[in-house]
Amino acid sequence: MKRTIVVGTRQSQLALTQTGHVIDALKRLCEEHSLPFDFEIRKIITKGDRILDVTLSKVGGKGLFVKEIEQAMLDGEIDLAVHSMKDMPSELQEGLVNGATPLRVDPRDALISRQDYSLETLPQGARVGTSSLRRCSQLLAFRPDLVIEPIRGNIDSRLRKLNEEGFDAIVLAAAGLFRMGWGDEITTFLPVELCLPAVGQGALGIECREEDHDVRHLLSLYNDKNTELTVSAERKFLSVLNGGCQVPIGAYATLVNDEDETNMISSPCIMLTGMVGYPDGRTILKETLIGNDPIRLGEEVAWKLISRGAGEILAEARE
Ligand SMILES: NCc1[nH]cc(CCC(=O)O)c1CC(=O)O
Hints:
By secondary structure, this protein is an alpha/beta fold. The protein is built from eleven helices and 13 strands.
C-alpha cells in the first residue's frame, strides 16, 4: 500500500512553484530508494495572504504565513510544507520540525531596472521600490541620493508595478525570480559585499511532524548538510538579535574549507558575516567571523555587533 503524502502550500505563484519543484525532487528520491509514496497538493490561504495591502512590518507577528500551515499539519490535514527559509520562524510549533534544508540557490538580491541601469548608473534621485528595511539601509549607504519607496505584493505584481508605478528599479531576491523562471528579468546582481542577503535567502525549509518517521526519512535524503550548517549559523545570529522578517538585519554564511593542508577532511569551517543598519543607511555595522560550530558562530557575530551598538539601531528601527 502506497501512502499519499499531503503537501500544504500557500496559493502564491512562488509557493506553488517551489512546492512543485520539491515534490518533483522527492518523487525522484522515492524512485531511487524504492520508497512507496505518492504526493498530493493542498492549498491553504493564510492570514498573511489576506492582508497583503497592509505593511507587513506593522502587522508584525513572526511567521505570519506559517502559522495556519502549521496548524493544518498538527491537525493531520497535511503532512509537509515547503517554506522559503527566510519566511520560516525561528521557533516552530511544538511537535513540528524542519525535516530538510535542500541545497541553497543564489542568495543575492537582484536589481530589476528600466533602461538597464545598474546601481552605479541609476540617475540622481532615482526611485527604487523595496519594502525591505535591510535592502533600503544598504542601498542608501551606497547611494544616499536614491529615493526608496515601498512596494508590496507577490513577485509578479512587483514586476508589474516597476512599469505601472514608474519606479526606475526594484530589488527582489534572485532566488525567487529563478524559481519562477524569470531570471531574464534581472538587470544586475547586487554583490553580497554591497547588499548582504536576508537570513536564509535562497534556501528552503521543509516542515513536517516530529513523529512522522516515514516523511522524516524521506526528507533526510533531500537534506543538504552544507546548506543546513550555513543557514543555521545565520538563523542563530538572527534569533540572538531577535529579528523578525522586517528588520534591517542581514547575514550570509559560506563554507571556507572542507580540507586541511594534508588534504584530510576536517570539520567544516563556516564564515559568517552579519549586518545591522539604520534604515536610512547612515550607519551600517558589519562583522565577519569564522568558526566550526554554527550555533556558537551565530551567537558570536551577534554579540560582537551588540557590543558595537546593534541594539540601539534595532530599537530605533522598531519604533
Ligand atoms: N520576502 C518575500 C520572499 N520570501 C522568499 C522570497 C524568495 C527568495 C527566497 O526564497 O529567498 C521572497 C521574495 C523576495 O524577497 O524577493
